[in-house]
Structures are given as structure tokens and as C-alpha cells.
Amino acid sequence: MSLIAYRRKRNFRTTPEPRARAHRRGKELVFVVQKHRATHLHHDFRLELDRVLKSWAVPKGPPRRSADKRLAVQVEDHPYAYKDFEGRIPEGEYGAGLVEKWDGGTYEAEGATSAAESERAMRAGLRRGRMSFVLKGSKLRGANSLVRLKSPKQWLLIKTHAKK
Question: Which of 23, 106, 142, 156 qualifies as a FRET site for 68, CA 20 to 30 Å off?
Fold first, then answer.
């Protein structure tokens, strides 16, 4: 839940990115996908968990068809306010380039019936290295999983079939 790495990498006098501020959990958990035209074009996939956005850089973009898999590299947590961020990060700053919101919405852990239950399941999944969740966005909908690979920062983002 720490935003120390986020703060350390940014100069808020020059970047338009949001500062880290306290956030209260709502009735539903949010997700956002941002298209980031930095050194290399990629998508940033973010899931709200423990009052921050857990974040992964997805070089080839999120999977859209069942059984598609994409490498997702976990990066530092971002503040909840980042869910609405769009803008240009100036040259010389960490992540310099254009950030555009590509998709967003709500999500829940697979099989969960409340935000609190979703957070418990997702927190346990993050520790264990496998999170299963259902996205409710305009472009991304349905069951997905994040599965950690041997490297602690490398995951696979997989479009899956919902369990019945």
C-alpha cells in the first residue's frame, strides 16, 4: 500500500501527475487501463486494492480474446486519483510521454459478492501469485487472471472463462 516509490520517482513541481492522497474505498473497486506513449508504447493496467492502484505495464496491451496472454510487468503502486489522469508527462521526468485513458470501470474478484470480499480475495491472490477477477469496462469485460511468473515483477495477464 505504500506510495513511497511513486513519490520518489516524481517531481510534482514539473509533472501534472496527481500527488498521493488518502482515499476511502467505495462500494465497488475500480480498474483503469491507460495507453502510455513513453519510450515504448504500452498500456498501464491498474486495479484498486488497499486504497491504491496496483499497477502493471503491459507492452502489447491487455488481452481481448479468451485464452490470450500478455506479459504484465508490475510497477510501483499509484494513487487512486491516477485513475482519472490523462496528460503529458514532461521530458526528463520518469515516464515522460502522453498518457491517455483507454478503458476503465469496476471489477470484482471472481466469486466475490462485495468490495470487501473482493479485496480480501485479491490481497490473498497477490501474495500467492494468482488473482482471478471480472472486469466491467466498456472495452474489457469478463473474467481475467494475473499469474506471477518466476520473476517477482513479471506476471501474465490472461483473458479467461468465468468459472461456473
Answer: 106
Contact of 55 with 77, CB cutoff 8 Å? yes
The grid coordinates listed for 155 are 506476471
Helix, strand, or coil here: 55?
strand
Bridge-partner residues for 157, per DSSP? Answer: 70, 146
**Pairing state of beta strands 69-79 and 41-49?**
unpaired
Q: What kind and span of H or E run contains 121?
A: helix 115-128
Question: Rounded to an integer, what distance in angstroms lies between the CA atom of residue 30 and that of residue 104?
Answer: 7
Continuous segment of H or E residues that includes residue 108: strand 97-109
CA pair distance 25, 65, nearest whole angstrom: 30
Query: Where do we find the cell 483507454?
Result: 102
Each residue's pLDDT tens digit in the chain (164 positions)?
478 899 899 999 999 999 877 677 788 999 999 999 999 999 999 999 999 999 999 999 999 999 899 999 999 999 999 999 999 999 999 999 999 999 999 999 999 999 999 999 999 999 999 999 999 999 999 999 999 999 999 999 999 976 65
Question: What is the value of pTM for the model shown?
Answer: 0.93
Residue 30 is placed in which grid cell?
Answer: 475500480
